Amino acid sequence: MFCHVDGFCRTTGPLFGGFCALCLVILLLSGCSPTESIETSAKRAVKLEAVSSVAGEAWRVSGNVRQRQRASLAFESAGRLETLSVDIGDQVRQGQVLAALDLQSVRLRQQQARASLSSSQALAAERKGNYRRQQRLYAAGSIAQSVVESAQASFEQAQARQLRAVSDMALAQHDVERGQLVAPFSGRVVARLADRYAQLTAGKVLLELESSDDRQVAAAVPASQAQGMKPGDVAVAYTAAQPSTPLDLVLEGGSSRAENGLLQTCIFRLRNPSVALSSGLTVLVQLHMEMPRRLAVPVSALLMGPISTNAQVFVYQPATTNETLGKVVIRNVSIAGVEQGRAVIDGGLAEGEQVVSAGVAFLSNGQSVMVYQPTTRLAQN
Which among 94, 85, 100 is positioned nearest to 211, based on CA atoms? Predict the structure, then answer.
């Protein structure tokens, strides 16, 4: 009897355990019924920024300080430098002799030309007197006409020799004058490129001279901007030594030719001529031009295309019932440039439209989103 009961328990025990497990699975599956499903997908939160217009930055170009009067002085003829009476930094006056070549051979040629001139003058005077005597004798019938014609030809030859001697004398005097270097204006010597007793070639620059009372600033301005400039326009310049101190400039004029098709040279004068600026100094010139306002968005809002001037942005379109819920639509835009971390937009957006300013790489066209709402003051700032 006991053995029968024990056998029954061994037989029904595993069946009972399996039945309990089956009931548990059914209960779990009943909790996942599709009639009670809950949508668990969350909308992506996006940070927005309104498209705003900003004033264009003033044009800044580099310029060089120079004196209005400047000259590179050289001898017209070759020779040995005999005299050099000035050095760098010396003040000179107009007409002052600054340097001279060895003029010994030149002066000898001058003496030779002077002697030749005297001889030709005497010969011309003698031939002239002979020609007049022959004319009187011919008038008296004492000589033939051919004698008069011969005397006339001799006189004309003497006149030609005299003219040649006069020219030789002028050339010799010019050579003497060319052997001296004279200051064309009053100023200061800023460079000396040879030493005394050096052998100079014709045209080799020896001294550089500048005036000391009238400074200019020569700036290379983009041709597109130079076309709108006129004499009298104002600008300011900054030096590296005093970057916070502006120097007032006034436009005097500019070149009508664009160097390399891009830049035109504009000449400014200092409004205050007493300002001490060394010639050759490089300054930063800021042009005071009226710049149009342009639309700009953060660079992080751009999806760049294959061309650097084309890009895309995600424009936010709010729902009619809730301003914080909506979708983003992709928009093609044109980029004019980047200034201070913001992209200047040429077209494709209107002022006031809201664009996604971060995380644009994770969005798709038409995607439903919600506006990011900061929860702390730190995030709001």
Answer: 94
Strands 215-222 and 180-182, by their bridges, are unpaired
Answer yes or no: are the C-beta atoms of 284 and 62 closer than 8 Å: yes
Does the 48-54+293-380 domain belong in CATH 2.60.120.10? no
pLDDT in tens, 146-172: 998 999 999 999 999 999 999 989 888
44, 316 contact by CB (below 8 A): no
CA of residue 176 relative to chain centroid, distance = 45
Check whether domain 104-178 has CATH 3.90.1210, yes or no: no
Q: What's the rounded Cα separation, in Å, for the pair 171 and 160?
A: 17
Token representation of residue 270: 């200092």
With contact defined as beta carbons under 8 Å apart, do 332 and 310 qualify?
A: yes
CA distance 120 to 98: 36
**CATH code reported for the domain at 213-287:** 2.40.30.170
Locus of tokens 């001529």 = 273
Which DSSP string do the residues of 215-268 spell out, in sequence order? EEEEEEEEHHHHTT--TT-EEEEE-SS-TTS-EEEEEEEE-SSPBTTTEEEEEE
Tokens standing for residue 178:
């060319």
Task: Locate CATH 1.10.287 in the chain.
Answer: 104-178
* 334 three-class SS: strand
Q: What residue ranges of the chain are covered by domains with CATH 2.40.30.170?
A: 213-287
H/E stretch holding 333: strand 325-339
Residue pLDDT, tens place only, 92-124: 999 999 999 987 877 888 888 899 999 999 999
Q: Where in the sequence of the chain do the CATH 2.40.420.20 domains occur?
A: 48-54+293-380
- Residue 83 β-bridge partners: 100
Phi, psi values for residue 289, rounded to 5°? -120, 145
pTM: 0.51
- 243 sits in the region (left: phi over 0; alpha: psi -120 to 50; else beta) called alpha
Alpha-carbon distance of 171 to 173, in angstroms, equals 5
Whole-number Å distance between alpha carbons of 186 and 364 = 74
